[in-house]
Amino acid sequence: MREIKTFYVNALRECLYVFSSESGECVIVDPGCQDGRERARVDDYFEKEGLRPVCILLTHAHFDHVLSVPYFAEKWDIPAVMNPADCDLLSKLSGYTSLFNMEYLPMDNVKFRYVNDGDEIQYAGFTFKVIGTPGHTNGGVCYLEETEKVMFTGDTLFQGSIGRTDFEESGEEDMCVSLEKLKRLNPDIAVYPGHGYPTSIGEELKSNPYLR
């Protein structure tokens, strides 16, 4: 049976998810651990549960979602999956870590796999449909596992809200188009956002003012 473990990490309370299958394989979603102490919590969970990560899924490349990509990618020799439109954000990582007094890990040895809207990828026995959702960033994506009715939305959709669109790499019109995509999905789909708490498409259609 599949399991989703949530870790709230770094000063911005970003949600790092570990999505595991019965096989013992798992995917890591948005590993934003800001230091070794936070990474140790995740490592302890892998060891306790006997899990083996097979990939990293990145919903977007803002610093608080990617801080520990190099650590997990190199430790497990696994790829980091992202939309290439967000690559330029990675070059700004050191500036943000300095600003927020967080540990900087260079991305030089990370193996990236680039995906686009409509792609399907398979990891840990799951099939993820990539839904392009620019708006918060140019390369924002959501990962939908239709069989499990699970979607990781990053900073596109939150419980009762949406991601900011006032950054240089953001766009309000793009966000509106992206939300229209999400509004058409099965209401039963569980939503795991980049910050805050899990919800569902159905709940957000009823209560989220941005989805009305």
Task: Explain how this protein is built.
The chain has 212 residues and is an alpha/beta fold. It has one domain (3-211): 4-Layer Sandwich (Metallo-beta-lactamase, Chain A), CATH 3.60.15.10. The protein contains seven helices and 14 strands. It has helices at 36-49, 63-66, 69-76, 87-90, 93-99, 172-183, 201-207, and strands at 3-9, 14-20, 25-29, 52-57, 80-82, 112-114, 120-123, 126-132, 141-145, 150-154, 157-158, 161-162, 190-193, 199-200. It has a six-stranded mixed beta sheet with strand order 1-2-3-4-5-6. Strand 9 and strand 10 form a beta hairpin. The longest helix has 14 residues, at 36-49. The mean pLDDT is 97.
Secondary-structure blueprint:
Layout: E1 3-9, E2 14-20, E3 25-29, H1 36-49, E4 52-57, H2 63-66, H3 69-76, E5 80-82, H4 87-90, H5 93-99, E6 112-114, E7 120-123, E8 126-132, E9 141-145, E10 150-154, E11 157-158, E12 161-162, H6 172-183, E13 190-193, E14 199-200, H7 201-207
Parallel strand pairs: 3-4, 4-5, 5-6, 10-13
Antiparallel strand pairs: 1-2, 2-3, 7-8, 8-9, 9-10, 11-12, 13-14
Fraction in beta strands: 25-35%
Distinct helical segment count: 7
Gyration radius over CA? 16 Å
CATH architectural category: 4-Layer Sandwich
Oligomer: single chain
The secondary-structure class comes to: alpha/beta
Strand order of the largest sheet: 1-2-3-4-5-6
The termini sit apart by 34 Å
**CATH superfamily placement:** Ribonuclease Z/Hydroxyacylglutathione hydrolase-like
Could you name the CATH class? Answer: Alpha Beta
- The residue fraction in helices comes out at 25-40%
| CATH topology (level 3) name | Metallo-beta-lactamase, Chain A
Shape: globular
Total discrete domains: 1
